[in-house]
Amino acid sequence: MKTIHDIDFAQLYRTHMQAAGGREKPPQEWDARAKEMGKLTGTSSYVRDFVERMNLDGCDTLLDVGCGTGAIALALAPQLKRVYALDYSQGMLDVLMKNARTLGIDNVTPIRLAWEDDWRDVPICDVVTASRSTTVMDMADALTKLDAKARRRVYLTNMAGGRFIDAEVAELLGRSRPALPDYIYIINLLYQMGRHPRLDYISSDNRLAGAKNFDEFVRKVTFAVGALRDDERERLKAWYEADPQRSQRGGAPFRWAFVAWERSQS
After folding, report:
1. Mean pLDDT, to the nearest integer, of 194-201?
2. Nearest Cα to Cα of residue 130 among 159, 98, 95
3. CA angle 127, 79, 36 (to 5 degrees)
4. pTM for this structure?
5. Domain limits of the chain?
6. Where do runs of H (alpha helix) occur along the chain?
7. How far is CA 67 from the centre of its chain?
8. Which fold has domain 4-164+177-206+253-265?
9. pLDDT tens digits for 204-261?
């Protein structure tokens, strides 16, 4: 009789990601969005919800993986002695450091690396975070790296449901691909690693929310699904203009799975 231990979740994840058309965006795409994403507008409800679920007892150092422009790293830096902010987009790291200087934060060290790079020189820290950055091509490798770099605890978020944009918008554009693999793989992989993950959920605006006008909305959609044809743009405009409040929300809210585990249990 086969049991859960006989299932190769690492390979199953990779197969699922390939079948769903998943890809790692090149860093240049994130570089182009860095300035727009990195404006200091105060702490978001998502960041507050993420930080409130963390335990920093006994922690002096943090490694924030896929840090982007620093939402999590900069929120936690005042409570820690040293923060290491890792991302493969130099544009994101540049904006992060600019924001740190604006806030008077001087304990953040940027590290330019990708998930698939060699992390041997990345310091081991008391706590490791990976917020909204875990849509990777090899989840088993990513979890192993996070776990190895954490002295005490790991906190991450991963999509619940496998889709980044509103299903109605995707259907409208004819871009309804199979859902990407989501957090349930992480739970099973951690179980096979001997970890005991804690699972919670955070609701937030989706990627299409907050556009100031239709052109900005199109840019958000294009970043998520790729270039639009003229007919797709017209259908999207009709959807956008039909309900301004819905358009401002970008459609349905997004749900993140919050996964945490203690590293010191081994």
Report:
1. 97
2. 159
3. 85
4. 0.85
5. 4-164+177-206+253-265
6. 9-19, 27-37, 45-52, 71-76, 90-103, 139-148, 167-172, 183-192, 214-225, 230-242, 244-249
7. 9
8. Rossmann fold (3.40.50)
9. 877 777 788 898 888 888 877 778 888 888 888 888 888 888 888 777 778 899 999 9
